[in-house]
Design brief:
Layout: H1 7-18, H2 26-38, H3 55-73, H4 83-91, H5 93-98, H6 100-130, H7 139-161, H8 165-187
Length: 197
Amino acid sequence: MILPSGSRGILQFAISRLEPFEGDDREIEKAIGLLRRATSAPLWIDDFHVDVEKGGDVFDDVEKAIRDLVKIDGVLADENAKGDEGKERADDDEAANVRTPLMIAASISIDRMVEATRKIATKAHQESLAGVTLDPKNQEEVNEKQEDAQEQIEEGDEELTGGKPDKAVEHFRKAWEKTQESIEEQAKEPKAGGKGK
């Protein structure tokens, strides 16, 4: 199967990996519900861009879905996100064997969810960097917000490397938010009678 290039399509791919287990596990059902809501059309401008006003909901739902899945994942090295329920499952060898295909599907889906949210953030950031600031007086503030966005992306990558995909998504959301602020500043026209630097 060819993985979609757009973030919305990647999230829908994640859903497709979980759906065979929808009736087998409560956490899977919760995650699927959250992802279906995250991919609903009103939250998206196109397959690559989330709605400026509602896009934060996509990050929220993806982060919650990941937190549900890590309770059963068994692949993540970080046990502190699993809670007592996840640890009990890991201790049950028989249950772990039965759930192996489910755990693999959950792991793949988590990877795709992180990839999708990172793409949303980085694409917006790249577009901001390529954009033009209409009022030169705003350029310094634009630069600061762009730098903040880049830092959040890097921190998200560090969290992912550290085995905390939900925290990574949280940073990607902050990067996207900072980028929206930079784009808003870029679009502000000079005041009538004003002069640039």
